Each structure stands twice: as structure tokens, then as C-alpha cells.
TrEMBL record:
It comes from Dictyobacter arantiisoli. Pfam families: Lactamase_B (PF00753). This is Metallo-beta-lactamase domain-containing protein. Residues 41-223 form the Metallo-beta-lactamase domain. InterPro entries: Metallo-B-lactamas, NDM-1-like, RibonucZ/Hydroxyglut_hydro.
Amino acid sequence: MNLSDHTPRQKASVTDSTQITDMQMIAHHVWQLSNCFPANLFNVYLIEDVLIDAATRWDASSLLKQLANIPLSQVALTHCHPDHQGAVKQICTTRGIPLACPEADIASMEGHAPMVPRTAAIKIMQLGFAGPAYSVQRSLHDGDEIAGFRVIHMPGHTPGHVMYFRESDRVAIVGDVLRNNHPLTGKIGLYEPPAVFTLDPEENRCSIRKLAQLHPALVCFGHGPVLHDMEQLDRFVDRLPS
Ligand SMILES: [Zn+2]
């Protein structure tokens, strides 16, 4: 598929047979849900019939409403943090669908291990945003395939963190490997994830470099708007401390 076939941020009013009201089409068979204000605070994507991430527990009703008439086969996480797993249980139980989670984050998702890193910031975020523990039906590994996207292990932010990459049009859904807004001011721009939320910032930097080496054409973040300007990504990576 050629990305130029689609106007970026086009309002997706109709798919093949389904009415979609609030979602934005960002690439072929990829939509971004509209679940929070301000926009792009906690991003959730739909690729074909798979939901990627589930924002916070406060987003459950909005997400379920937007997905009401949409076929869903599973929820797949980029990683287990409160702002990505928050609505998992409500969505999976309401829709009767399984949860897929990166292998090394499963213990956290199921409540057998704490979310990491064990910083005060994560603990506070858990209190404010996390959803209940929920059992994982599918363990995700590097090289797996979901809805035409390849699962790529990108550790550092959490041990299991993965991204989803579609070779045909080089669309990358990267979770929190990198973000496109400032965590405090919301100013748009590329930033590493905050160290207080990142288990191993150095390893995450390796994952950011790995992302750039894939030469994506469109990058979809857990936080911040999608990025089309890949020169910006290359400049950011060039400036990363070695
Ligand atoms: Zn996040």
C-alpha cells in the first residue's frame, strides 16, 4: 500500500461494512481511537480487528462506545503500564475477546509481579490509572504476526516491550519506546520516555536506534501525534547520547 493513498488524519466515517464515528484513519486498516482530552495523551490504535493498547481504566467506557459496532478479535499490548493496560479487563470481558501481552510483561499484567520500574512515579500512576490484573491468553514474542504487523521486541522501557511493524507500508506502532510530546508540557516533539517510568533507559536507547534502522514511513506513539517526518526521527537518533 502507498501511504499517499490516504490523507493523513482523515476522518474515517465508513469502513467496508462498518460505521466508525470517532476514530481517525491514519493508514490502511489502521485507526487511532479518540479516547481522551487533550488528544494524543494516551493513544489506542485499531489494526484491522485488533486493539493495540487500552489506555487507562478511565477510558474503558469511551473505548467500548467507539468500538461498539466494530468486530474485535483481541487486545494486544505494547507493554504493561497503567496507561496502556487500564481498560483491558473491561474491554476483554465485555467483548469476550482474549488478551495478548509481551512475554516478559505477563507476570505484571496478571498481578503476579509488580509493574516496573518500582519507582514512586509508577506506583502513583498505578493508583491513578491502572486497571485490574487480567489473565493473558497469548504470549507475544519477537517475530510473531498480528493483523499483518510483525511483533518486534524493543526492551528497555519495560522488559517485554514490543512494537508492531508492517513491512508493506512501513507503519510502526511503537508504544513508549519513543514519544512525540513532552510528558509535562505536552509540547509536540520527540522525547525519550521519562527515566522514572523506564526500567533501563540505555537499553531503550538501543530500541530507539533499532526503530530508526527499520526506516519507518509512519510512526504511531503511545503518547503524542503520529509522525510522518522521518528526517526528524533520524536527527533525534543522531543526537542521542551514545
Ligand atoms: Zn505510556
